[in-house]
Amino acid sequence: MGKVIMTADDSASVRQMVSFTLREHGYEVVEASDGKDALQKLGNRKVDMLITDLNMPNLDGIGLIKGARTLPSCKFMPIIMLTTESQDSRKQEGKAAGATGWIIKPFKPDQLLAVVKKVLG
Amino acid sequence: MKDQHKQAFMEEAYELLTELESSLLELEDAPEDMDIIGRVFRAMHTIKGSGAMFGFCDIAAFTHEVETVFDLVRNGRILVNKELIRHTLDARDQIKSLLDASDGGNDADTGAGERIIAELRRFLPEGPGEKPEASSKASPVLKTPEAPLPQVRLTYRVRFKPAKNVFFSGANPVALLNELRGLGECKIVAQRCELPLLDELDPELCYIYWDIILTTSEGVNAIKDVFIFIDDDCELRIEIIDDGGWLDNEGGYKRVGDILVERGDLSQQALKEVLSEQMRVGELLVAKGLVGPDKIQSALLEQQHVKELRQEREKQESVASIRVPAEKLDILVNLVGELVTVQARLSQIAANRSEVDLSSVAEEVERLISELRDNALGIRMLPIGTTFSKFKRLVHDLSRELGKDIEMTTAGAETELDKNVLEKLNDPLVHLIRNCIDHGVETPEGRVAAGKPSKGTVHLAAVHSGDSVLIRISDDGAGLDREAIRAKAVEQGLIPAGVELSDRELYAQIFAPGFSTAKKVSSVSGRGVGMDVVKQAINSLRGSIDISSKPGNGTTITIKIPLTLAIIESLLVKIGNDSFVMPLSLVDECVELTRKDVENSHGRNLADVRGQIIPYIPLRERFKTGGTPPPIEQIVITRINDTRVGFVVDSVVGEHQTVIKSLGRAYRNVKGLSGATVLGNGSVALILDLPQLFNAAENDAKFLH
After folding, report:
1. Could you tell me if B58 lies within 8 Å of chain A, comparing CB atoms?
2. What pLDDT sits at residue B440?
3. Which CATH number is associated with domain B2-121?
């Protein structure tokens, strides 16, 4: 059974690209359009990994990460944040909230897969 | 796939722009509403991020500038005013025209874009021109090690000690260790010394750390990249312990025990016993409680890893190649040749004496020398590709000179040939390729008129065939003009007029001295000097040359060359008291020829071999040996230019390794002989040039009839 990865992003095109790339490589993908949507979906089903944008309406990425970590099923789940900023402050904020790692936008499908492989093993 | 994503981005971007517009207009009425400011920022942020991802770099770069301003607005460092909104709306329109442009619309006005950016920059508190963060577009997530320096394999000692709470960030140390394994040869030891007792153990914490010995050519950055996400949450120590050879010199001393055994002061057995009683350093340390067993295991593993690595490297170094002057190889091959001759004598003497001791030694020597010969000859082999590449240039230069468009293709460049053969083959090949280009391939106009692509091809191919190499030079030109060749051959008295010849026989005429059908003499070829020289050169290599051609489709010239010139496998035969050798490569089989067979054939020299009629040449007659033939003679059936033809000899002695010696100057022009060799008993045998003998017999027959 393929691992389930959630992509949380308010940009439909990024979600599409992420899902397409991951599905092509045998992962199951759950899409969420913002942090709130994502958190709700995380509570409903088992997800092995989360890839989230930082800037989202309703609940942003940092909030989502913090929220996810309080869920027992997501306590040790790898969480990757997508960020356009390479500022350390933003990364640190994400890490402090409990993110596993980050991908800097723009990224190529290969880079996405490399990171997924890295954290999912 | 790509376009599908691009399309999705465009749709989304238009949507966001609409939203951006309305948000900006709302903002005008409520300039301090952080919610609206957040919406504006996010819209631009998404356009920028997604744009860069799907290749809309101009849009991403432009939007980045606008976003920079709104990032500050969001942080309360810039206040919203009407002017800012006006410029941002302009910017939004600019983004739209950039989008339209990439959707196939008119090109966007880049000047306008620059003006808008200049206006917006004036809002930045730091002053114009400064960008808070320069690297929004560059910097991929994982730094691919830039220009991986020459592939040096280094061995690293890595200690990876994650923070105890490493699991809470979702990191998986096992995945990282596996990733490390992917970099090269890797040995990992887990260090468990910090594990607490069970009732103190928190299962959600990581108490273990790892020692890793890794040999990789990826460089230290690749190792660091593995741990990039937990850089701050782990203790990572990377040290080089083996740098690919420089450190090998140390530690090559003998141990005391070994030295004592070598001197005879101590027996091997006694040493072993003493050593088995002795505790290893590691055991001693553990026993004294100075170091934990895991640490010792880790150190031992490192030792073993480095040892294996060095052993492997030594192995590799010993198979590395060396350069040797060609003359040395020639001397070696000559010596092997002499050795083969001497060995033949030894074998013969052993056979005559029927002493078991002697014959077993003789057999051993024979086997070894045969191996030695193959190896010595193998050393001189070179791939023919080195010659091919020279011809590419030749074709290029010549075709340009002649105004033709010709491409040369090659196949079998890895086919190996004796160095000396290769050198002698160069001139004939150059000549043949010139002929192809000059006479074979037509001018581009001529080719188009004949319905062929204007670009011609000359194909050069080499392939192994038994103990020979076949070299084919083919072109896709006009082919040989049969009638022109016939007319010319008759005119020069090479063939009688009115005789019907096969294509092969007719084409063979172009190898006659002075033969040329070219209407004009060019600087390249056509003087009628050359093809006969080519033939001579190939013959001197004991090779043969063959032409086939189809009008309009091109010509193929096939050269068959023995692999080596120095030593050949051959068949030793006798006629009267004389010995002769025939190259075994040409021999198919041997059959008996009885008196009765000869009578039955009524003087036509034809033998019936399993229903196939095969012409034969009685060598006894041809060589005017005299004496009477034995009642049962032998026909050695050979294959020459795809024709089966027999040579009648008195008896067949057997296979023989023939070291070829050239004949003296007085005999050099004798037809039918290609050299001589020394037999085991010291006598001399002549090497028969079977194709030449066959041709001579054929010509005689033709003129008789």
Report:
1. no
2. 80
3. 1.20.120.160
Between B280 and B43, where is the model more confident?
B43
- In the block, residue with structure tokens 């301003």: B69
Examine the pLDDT at B600 and tell me if it is beyond 50. Answer: yes
* Spatial separation of the C-alpha atoms in residues B683 and B457, rounded to whole Å: 52
Query: B383 pLDDT exceeds 70?
Result: yes
Closest in A76, A86, A106 to B170, CB measured: A76
Cβ–Cβ below 8 Å for B171 and A78? yes
pLDDT at B703: 53
Q: What residues form DSSP beta bridges with B606?
A: B615
Q: Look up the ipTM and state it.
A: 0.84
Which chain B residues are Cβ-neighbours of A57 within 8 angstroms?
38-39, 42
Which of A5, A11, A14 to mutate to probe the B interface, most B CBs <10 Å?
A: A11
Is the pLDDT reported for residue B377 higher than 50?
yes
**Residue of A65, A84, A111 for testing the chain B interface, max B β-carbons within 10 Å:** A84
Best CATH choice for the domain A4-120 from the list 1.25.40.10, 3.40.50.2300, 3.30.450.20, 3.90.930.50: 3.40.50.2300
Min Cα distance B74 → chain A (Å) is 12
Domain boundaries, chain B: 2-121, 150-250+288-318, 326-380, 382-562, 567-704
Q: What is the mean pLDDT of residues B650-677?
A: 82
Q: Which CATH code for domain B567-704?
A: 2.30.30.40
Q: For residue B67, which of B42, B89, B85 has the smallest C-alpha distance?
A: B42
Three-class secondary structure of residue B529 per DSSP: coil
Mean pLDDT over residues B23-30, rounded? 82
Residue B120 C-alpha, separation from nearest chain A C-alpha, in angstroms: 20
DSSP B163: -
B66 to chain A, any CB pair closer than 8 A? The answer is no
CATH 3.40.50.880 fits B150-250+288-318, yes or no: no
Architecture of domain B382-562: 2-Layer Sandwich (3.30)
CA-wise closest residue to B616 among B595, B596, B642, B634:
B634
Residues in chain A: 121
Residue A12 — pLDDT band, cuts 50, 70, 90?
confident
